[in-house]
From TrEMBL:
Pfam families referenced in this protein's UniProt entry, alphabetically: Translin
GO MF terms, alphabetically ordered: RNA binding; sequence-specific DNA binding; single-stranded DNA binding
Domain of life: Eukaryota
CDD domains (alphabetical): Translin
Name of the protein described by the UniProt record: Translin family protein
Entry keyword annotation includes DNA-binding: yes
GO biological process: RNA metabolic process
Family: Belongs to the translin family.
Compartments where found: Cytoplasm; Nucleus
Keywords: Cytoplasm, DNA-binding, Nucleus, RNA-binding
A single GO cellular-component term on record: cytoplasm
InterPro entries in UniProt: Translin, Translin_C, Translin_fam, Translin_N, Translin_sf
Length: 295
């Protein structure tokens, strides 16, 4: 009886619903889900503090405070970099004029190797010194816009200043036979050691550059018949080399230039030796210094 009734009920159910859901599935759906400890802890946590769901960008969305701080910081960086770039452009424009004036002085001084009259050559080269003083004055005015930033921009005119000192020292030696001291170099360029001065390393490097021109000058003077010139240059370079040895120079660019002075002195000594053994100078000259083992 029960079997017949169940078959009749199943047939009627199929006629009403061709895709019936099994009773077992209905039982699973209707059965209450057991709550695990992790799920209970998640449900107990406030929703706003445990889960962040990004919302679509809209007019009413407010950025976090950190975004404002970051934007403000990089905006100040942008302003600083633009101001620094503009300042460097002004400095480079003046430096190019310094470099141009230095090339003209060097071109005039090269004529001493052709046995031209030295006073005439020096007088023509000195015409550009006033221009150099004017250019360095303009540099000082530019740096007044950024107090305390001298060494930040010093590299923009360092090499040009070293070349200027080299030419000024060579002119001074041709006139007097002595070394152009640091204070005299500053005075020629109109520099103030307190605000905008001549750096000691730039001065020393320029003096080393000047010594590189002396061996060629000696050879050309001997060729022109000035046999006393090697002795004068040798004595000058000997004293200068001894003075540099008082400095504790490290292995940097200035040290390399000082080492080149040793070879300049050696070349001048060789010329002096050749002139002396040929009897072209008197025999009362001082003996040759030995710099073979100096470093």
């Amino acid at each position: 009886m029960n079997t017949a009734y169940r078959s009749l009920h199943l047939t009627a159910s199929r006629l009403i619903n061709p895709n019936p859901i099994s009773s077992s599935l209905l039982h699973l759906l209707a059965a209450p889900r057991r709550s695990s400890p992790l799920r209970r802890r998640f449900l107990a946590t406030p929703f706003s503090s445990s889960l962040y769901i990004p919302m679509a960008a809209g007019d009413d969305q407010v950025p976090p405070p950190e975004s404002h701080l970051l934007e403000k910081q990089f905006e100040s960086f942008r302003v600083q970099l633009e101001e620094s770039a503009a300042l460097r452009e002004q400095i480079r424009a003046v430096v190019m004029e310094i470099e141009s004036a230095t090339r003209l002085i060097q071109a005039n001084l090269l004529l001493v190797h052709q046995s031209r009259p030295i006073p005439e050559i020096i007088e023509k080269a000195k015409e550009k010194i006033d221009d150099l003083k004017k250019f360095y004055g303009r540099l000082a005015e530019i740096l007044q816009k950024c107090p305390g930033q001298y060494y930040r921009y010093h590299g923009d005119w360092r090499s040009e200043t070293q070349a200027v000192v080299s030419q000024l020292a060579f002119m001074h030696w041709l006139e007097t036979g002595t070394l152009l001291v640091h204070t005299e170099a500053e005075a020629k360029l109109g520099l103030n050691s307190l605000e905008f001065g001549l750096e000691t390393e730039d001065y020393l490097t320029g003096i080393c550059f000047m010594s590189n021109d002396l061996p060629r000058y000696v050879v050309n003077r001997v060729t022109a018949g000035d046999y006393d010139c090697p002795r004068k240059v040798m004595n000058f370079l000997t004293d200068l080399h001894a003075a540099f040895r008082m400095l504790n120079l490290r292995n940097d660019f200035l040290r390399k230039k000082f080492d080149s002075m040793k070879y300049d002195l050696r070349r001048v000594e060789e010329v002096y030796y050749d002139v002396k053994i040929r009897g072209l100078i008197s025999g009362g000259d001082p003996p040759l210094p030995n710099v073979q083992d100096q470093s």
